[in-house]
Write a structure and sequence with these properties.
The protein is built from 17 helices and 18 strands. It has 536 residues and is an alpha+beta fold. It binds glycine and manganese (II) ion (MN) (2 copies). Belongs to the peptidase M24B family.
Amino acid sequence: MVYPAQQHVINTFTRLIHLLPPTEKAKPHAILLAGEDTSYRHDTDRELSFRQESNFFYLSGCSVPSSHLLCVYEASTGLSQNPSISLFLHEATISDLMWSPAPPTKEDAKSLFEATSVEYTDKLMDTIQTVAKIPDILFHTLPRGSPKFPVLLEEYTGAILNTDAAISDAYLLTALGRARLTKDAHEIELIERANQISSRAHEVVMRVLGAAVKGKIQREAAAAKGERPLLPGEWLIEKEAEAEAIFVASCRREGSVHQAYLPIVAAASRASTLHYCCNDRDFAWGPVGAHDHKNHNALASSDKDLNPQVLLIDAGCEWDCYASDITRTMPVGNSGKFTPEARAIYELVLEMQKLSMEALRPGIHWDAIQLLCHRTLVRGFQKLGIFLTSESPGSGSWNSEEAILASGVSAAFFPHGVGHSLGMDVHDVPHASKPTNNDTIGNELGHSSFYQYLRLRLPLEEGMVVTVEPGCYFSPHLLASVRDSRHINHEVLKKYESVGGVRIEDVVLITANGHRNLTTVRSDVAWVEGVCSGEL
Ligand code: GLY
Ligand code: MN
Ligand code: MN
């Protein structure tokens, strides 16, 4: 199926015209975009991994480096017969072909992309000059001179400025953001594919952990002595890097070229660092108690055992420029079972996610989901005794659920937002995810700190794709600010601090009546422990 670039161009012109002042709306409009070039590592000739700029891909479906796009809409002919989409490709030279695979020819490209015409870049200047002659035409570009977007050469913008045509970079980015905020069936399919591949990769990591607990991964004797390297299937996961390697390998072998973001693979207390992505530490080891805190067969000849700890993996691959973003938190050590404290926190985060999911539907404001998560966390902490209640000895109404919510203390444990829009980028369309002055903001109940890092602040609409990713963390940096809080039983809190952090993150589509979860890897305690202990 060809990527629906034409519909995306129509969506973008529709949004663009909506944003323009009345005097400009009826004019002819053009969109001129540069695609991403191949880039190189600093002062070398080594290519960096190529990824098309998201807006360029949205309007073209084209991932060929150094392409350009010129779309023209003339109001009088209506949007359904319009606009024209002209794609300009770099024509490969012999030396390009010597070093790199051949890009599509312009003839190939006509069947690969939904473009009205495909030419090589040498025709771009003439075409710009012809389009610039359309009376009253207004060219739109992404912010020029911004390092966030591919460079549109001055020779092209200068050619427009030399004519009577006007050029503006004030509207296109907002129009693209608004258009990209809701997804069509083709985009949903790509996001679903990325989620399925990433879901399997999370499960693969858990199954390798479980196989090790059951002694099913035996290092071949010669390999263990260092006489030959370990073969796939002989690896244990004993450090963050090994978990990352297995996750990425699983995605790569299913054809995904990129991760959608640097994987976050954090064991033990590192799970409290939200964007930990160095992934370079061993799991915590040590002689442990005489009871069952062992990953029995993980290292058959060692006198050390894995400490009971969590392993938080926040990772998702990209499929054809569409992202996934999944977090699972799993038990390591303790025979692949959570400790009682880790299980209690895990179940609380799962409850925050479950109640959030149940509330999802078009019209509900994302702020309300954020508040719901804080309310659920406060209730859960009161049940666990980490927060006091108004009935606690020596307590009073200042420890009611509402009072604790109003104090903002829960933000020390759940400091980030419950989720964000996801699409071509993992934190998708940031400039379209917050209200402009004229839109209504959410209710902002609770405490203003709940909303500080909330990346989406809009009512939900059918077709949006969002992550639902509550978490609960015991970060020494954040706890420092609540060490003297009168809402906290500090003795009880101490018992939980070694859990580090738990986050559970799924990607969901907002449907007409609710939501559909696009993430397929399970997160219920019975399944996660069953797989990580090798029992399932
Ligand atoms: N992986 C980054 C996030 O969950 O937002
Ligand atoms: Mn994530
Ligand atoms: Mn996320």
